[in-house]
Each structure stands twice: as structure tokens, then as C-alpha cells.
Design a protein that fits this description.
- 53% of the residues lie in helices and 7% in strands.
- It is built from 13 helices and five strands.
- It binds tryptophan.
Length: 337
């Protein structure tokens, strides 16, 4: 089992990033060989300030390491440092029918009304993503709902390339690519705003009280939970009864994801209790969980050379794993090297 996953570097990381994405990687690294990367080449499909991009790439890497991604267990790197991603992406782009990309829903969402002004890279985004996993012969790719279509496309691209060129390569007709499977990570936690249970927790929400930042200190975390919007009801016995109580549901979900519990198990523990009891328990849990992560995160942020050294070393290992596949693709296409 070889799992490959990427994440776009963003700054101002918060609890939503931690529980929604970062924490999954910490779990995955124990379940097989893992390659994790910062998708900086994907980030440039839309405009990104160069300085902010470098800073965000380091910041996201620091958060991942602080949260427990272990560079000894998982191979952690940024995409731009492994040139094979871009090389393979070009070879795949030339072998992907435009019609397949026209079906991608994310391009429609991201380009919106400005299709003509969107970059060619944004349109080809899913092909780079296919290259990201095919280059390492990934057997598994973790996918949330929004990425299912991209994985399907990666499989289609791999299959087409294998059948068009696999039999013609010099080594006697082996497949060039492994078809990756979806790796179901359980229900990904969608962390919602602490002020509005219908909005996602977001770095761009104007209200600081809507989110818990990875850099918030103990008191700030406790205060934000204390002031989080809720309702006057007690916690019910079943999840169904949380229907229509988005803020209550969100706090239960946050508790569950932080404590690695099922949401139902949280209710079992707090049924009949009001938020006067539940909020302090949640605040304690978050403060204790986030403190060591924050301390390491802040330390790593102040020492970018340490983070860079980890990323550079990860890139060397990734390069070694990916290069044979890139070479095989050049060869299959008849490109002289
Ligand atoms: N597009 C993914 C996202 O926005 C990030 C990503 C890039 C990725 N390449 C990948 C995820 C390869 C999994 C595998 O979340």
C-alpha cells in the first residue's frame, strides 16, 4: 500500500485545517508507505503573491510536522522541488482529451464567470493532480467528496496511457502506471464557524471569534469556545435530535474529531447536559490538545531552515521513487533522453 496525498499551502491555519485535513495525514502515515506534499504547483493555477506562497508553503509544512507528520515515517516535501511532477503532467496533458476536462465540476466552480480569464493551468489542474499520484505508482489516494472526480480522471488517464503506449515501450509491454484506488478516510470533519453553524470555519471570516487559529493561546481558545454561539437546549441522546441545531452539532463534531471519538459517543457522555457543562469540557480538551502542537508550530515557524531541510530531504526521497516512472513515460512516448 502506497498512499499519496497533497494539500494546497494556505496561511493563517485554523482548527478547520487541523481537524479536516492535517490530522488525517498523521493517521495515514501509520497505515502504509505515505508520500505527502504541499501542492505549490497547484497553488499557482490562480494568482498567488510569490512571497506569500513561499511563506504559506513553509507554514503549512510546519503545521503538518507540529501536528505529528513524522518525516521519518512519511515522505514530506513540496511539489516544486520534485521536477517529475511537472514533466509527467506535460506528458499526460498531451494525452488527455479536452472533453474529459470539460466535465470537471471544480473548474466550473473555480473559474465562475471568468472562464476566459482563467489560466490554462487551472483548466489542467486535474491532470497535474493525476501526475502527482501516478508518478509514485500510488495504490491509494485519500479522497473527500470534492476530489472523487479527480481520482476517477487520474484512473482514466492512467488506463488510456497504459493501453495507448504500455505495449510499445522498450521493456516489453508493461503498464507504465498503477491505477490508484480511493482510500476512504471515514467522514472528514467539516468544521464550521463558531458564530454560524451554516458557514465553514474560514481564515477569511472577518470575525476572529468565528475560528480557532493554530497560534491562539490557551486563554484565547477557552474564550472563543465560551463565546461560541449555541442554543439553550441540553445535549440530546441521539444525533438525529441535533437536526436543525447546527451550532450544537458543530461543537459535538469538534469534540469528537479532537478526541478521536464518534459523535454518538460524545453524546453518550454528555446527554442531558447543557452547554454550561459541555463548553468547559470542550475548551479543556482543545487547550490540552492544541498546546503542544502550537508550541512546536511556533518554534518551527521561527526556524524556517529546519523546515526547509526536512522538505529538501523529503524531495530527494520522492525524486528517487518517482524518477523511474517519469523515465518510463518518456520512453513509452518515444522521447529520446
Ligand atoms: N487538489 C487537492 C486539494 O485541493 C490537492 C492535491 C493536489 C491532491 N494533488 C493531489 C490531493 C494529489 C490528493 C492527491 O485538496
Amino acid at each position: 500500500m502506497r498512499t499519496v496525498s497533497g494539500i494546497q499551502p494556505t496561511g493563517n491555519l485554523h482548527l478547520g485545517n487541523y481537524l479536516g485535513a492535517i490530522k488525517n495525514w498523521v493517521r495515514m502515515q501509520d497505515e502504509g508507505e505515505s508520500l505527502f506534499f504541499l501542492a505549490d504547483l497547484h497553488a499557482i493555477t490562480v494568482h498567488n503573491e510569490p512571497k506569500a506562497l513561499s511563506a504559506n508553503t513553509r507554514e503549512m509544512a510546519a503545521a503538518l510536522i507540529a501536528a505529528g507528520v513524522d518525516p521519518e515515517k512519511a515522505i514530506l516535501f513540496n511539489q516544486a522541488r520534485v521536477s517529475g511532477h511537472a514533466e509527467l503532467a506535460w506528458m499526460l496533458i498531451c494525452n488527455t482529451p479536452m472533453g474529459w476536462l470539460d466535465r470537471m465540476t471544480q473548474f466550473k466552480e473555480k473559474s465562475g464567470k471568468h472562464k476566459q480569464r482563467s489560466s490554462l493551468g487551472l483548466y489542467g489542474y486535474p491532470v497535474l493532480q493525476a501526475a502527482d499520484v501516478l508518478i509514485y505508482q500510488a495504490t491509494h489516494v485519500p479522497v473527500g467528496e470534492d476530489q472523487k472526480q479527480h481520482l476517477e480522471l487520474a484512473r482514466d488517464i492512467a488506463q488510456k496511457f497504459n493501453s495507448d503506449f504500455g505495449a510499445k515501450n522498450d521493456d516489453g509491454g508493461d503498464d507504465v502506471f498503477t491505477l490508484p484506488e480511493a482510500y476512504i478516510t471515514g467522514t472528514a470533519t467539516r468544521v464550521m464557524s463558531l458564530r454560524d453553524g451554516a458557514a465553514k470555519m474560514s481564515k477569511s471570516d472577518p470575525s476572529e471569534m468565528s475560528r480557532i487559529n493554530m497560534t491562539d493561546d490557551d486563554d484565547t481558545i477557552a474564550q472563543k469556545i465560551r463565546k461560541a454561539r449555541t442554543d439553550p437546549e441540553a445535549l440530546p441522546a441521539t444525533l438525529d435530535e441535533l437536526e436543525g441545531r447546527a451550532e450544537a452539532r458543530n461543537l459535538v463534531n469538534i469534540y469528537a474529531a479532537t478526541a478521536d471519538m464518534e459523535a454518538q459517543a460524545v453524546l453518550d457522555q454528555f446527554t442531558g447536559k447543557g452547554f454550561g457543562d459541555f463548553k468547559p469540557a470542550l475548551a479543556d480538551l482543545l487547550v490540552e490538545t492544541l498546546r503542544p502542537i502550537r508550541e512546536e508550530f511556533v518554534r518551527l515557524k521561527s526556524d524556517p531552515t529546519a523546515t526547509d531541510a526536512i522538505l529538501t530531504k523529503g524531495a530527494q526521497r520522492a525524486e528517487a521513487l518517482g524518477r523511474p516512472t517519469v523515465d518510463a513515460a518518456y520512453n513509452a512516448l518515444g522521447l529520446l533522453r
